[in-house]
Predict the 3D structure of the following.
Amino acid sequence: KPSSMASYHAQLAQVFWVAGNGLFHAYSLTRSYATAKSLKAAPSEAELTALASRAVLAALSVPPSSPVLDLNLLEYDLEHEKTKRMAQMLSFPSTASRATLLAEVVASGLLEAAAPEVRELHALVERKQVPLDLAAAAAPVLAKLAASDACGQYDLPLRRLVALRMLQQMERLYLTISIDKAADAITVLQWPQIEALLVWAVKKDLVSLRIDYKLGQLNQQRNKADAAASSEVRESLAGFASALDAVNQHLRSADLEKHAAETRARLQEAIGKSLEEEHQKVLARRLVIERRKEEQERLAMEEDKEKSRLKAQRQRAEEEEEKARLQADAERRDAEREHRTREEAEAAERRKLAEQMAEQRKTMKVAKKKGWGEGGGKVETDVDKLAEKDRSELMREQKMLLMDERQEFEKRLESMGKRHDHLERARREGERDLLELRWQAQQAEDKKLHEANAASLALKMKESRAHDLQQKARFSRMAAAADAFTKRVLATRAVAHEAVVAAWRVEQSERREAARMERERVAAEEREREAAIEQARREAEEEEARRIQEAQEAARKKQEAEEERKRVLERQKAREKELEEKEALARLAAREQVGKSWAADDDDEELPDLQMAKALGGDKFEAKPKPEERAPPGGDARPRPFERRDRPPNPDGEGWERHPL
């Protein structure tokens, strides 16, 4: 009954409010309002308004959820499954959420039936974009709702919703905002409540703000700052652009009216010239529009049918899923019961199997066991004796008995088949003569019937021929008038066709002219583009040639500088070599004056020429090692002074008196 359902939904809403489930509390109030409207003794207008206001406020009080669902969280999966099952048990939508509930409230007309202050609050928190003035605009509405007995319980959730919408809108417009300014703007809550709300919203991924007490700011994560992607900001900018467009239209109204009047005059003149053609076009367009409407109606009907089919399919799938779940639960419980009673069931099953086998053996045609030892044996039918045997042994004996029974049945069937074949052969031999006589009598009857039908058909054809000749003579009097009418219609259609062909030729010539001009324009643009490309190519080639020439000039200068450096080094080496030769001659002259030889200088650590060089030039002179005295690969290859070495013996037996320079 509707009255019982209304009371049930009202009590259900109270239960969910006490349990803290705002979503199902709001759904219960919407169902209560719909049930109250269908009562025979409907409530008063004021009561319906109060109930609609409570339903809308309850829907607004539902905590928002993040649009991005993290399906990897186990607790979310459990909560989502719990909500879905609860909705199915209460006949609520399986996709129950705050967004779907608000959409249902607006679509069902529940919002229009609510109080004006409720509609105003809904517009403020769900549609408008006023991040700094939302609390000031919503405060009077919240105060008026808080004073109401029916709506006072939603005061704190609505204040939290207003504060959350302000934080979300601030996040979309500002990267940073001071804590003091945010607290001054959000006047519906105190700062500790705002702080707790902000922590909850960040945890639910509703905002990305962070509190920086050191700087006294609310900061937004820069990797999530995307104000241009906000739908509210885009809607605000679109509204502002529309307002500016309206102002522009108002400022240019005089020019626009003048232009419209001129355009209207030209259109009227053109319409007067081509009235008949436009009339035909309008008729054709009307026909096309009607066909399109019919097609759209057909498509809409097909779409509705498809939606209904998909909805029914989804419902069937959900019902099958629920049935499968219930069946799985029942199977699990049955398995548990079977596990507890398995031993008793097995004993009862063996007894029952023995009884069934005994009854079955009593009805068998086989009285003795065949092929079981010497002469077989009598078939056992005592239930107690059969129950003493093992199950596998009973099954084996029963299988063999069934095989014997089947063999006996096949033998009886074979004998029955042979007997039936003999009877059938005898019946066919007896009826052969009777069938032949029957066929001859049927042939005689068919021949008589054919001759009667042929005579009747000939008579009918003669009568039809006479009737056709009478009709031809009667219709021949109007042949001349019909020919004249046909000629007039053909002449009229020929004139209309010539007019259409002439118009088509004019239109084709205009199209060809337009196509020619378009081709010329495209060709001119293509020539200009090719000329621009050619100019750019020439400039690039000139730039490349200039760059290559500069590179070659720089390489030439570098090569000349290198050659000049080599010449300077060669001249310097020549001068050093000349100085070395002069120093060598000076050392020879000094050695001759001293009168020493290398053979008498074994006890000295250095050669006489080196001592003389040090005496003359200091430490600058350093003897160069001979090729055979250089360090081996991997050793110390630096030049060093001559050292004392043992000379090898002279093969000629003569001593070395002079240094071979």
